[in-house]
Amino acid sequence: MTWMLDTHALLWALFEPNQLGRKTRAILNDPLNEVLVSPVSYWEISLKFGLGKLDLPDTDPAEIPAAARQLGLAEEPLAAEILSSFHRLPYAPDHRDPFDRLLVWQAICRKHTLLSRDRALPFFKAHGLKFDW
Questions:
Q1: Which CATH number is 2-132 given?
Q2: Residue 104 in contact with residue 129, Cβ under 8 Å?
Q3: pLDDT tens digits, residue range 82-99?
């Protein structure tokens, strides 16, 4: 099975692993699992950092991809087909965050299980999303 980290899960894996769920920690620690990071997460981190909405302990956002690779995480490319078909993902009544929606759509299209604590994810299950925590 292939897993993809939500942005908050990536940040917790790097800076606060005790915030991760027990199952997510086990997935990250198993070398047989393929755990991916979307470039969307790097973009979200960089944007929020630049706006002063995200504090990174002694870290520049440009250092995050290398830190993720050191954890054994791989990058999941963001293909034009995913971006151009994004309009097909229905809007959840209480969830309009474009970063989260794009991560959800990427996970659905690539058939990855999204590792996230986002409470709005059950809405997307009917549209093909697999998620866990």
A1: 3.40.50.1010
A2: yes
A3: 999 999 999 988 777 899
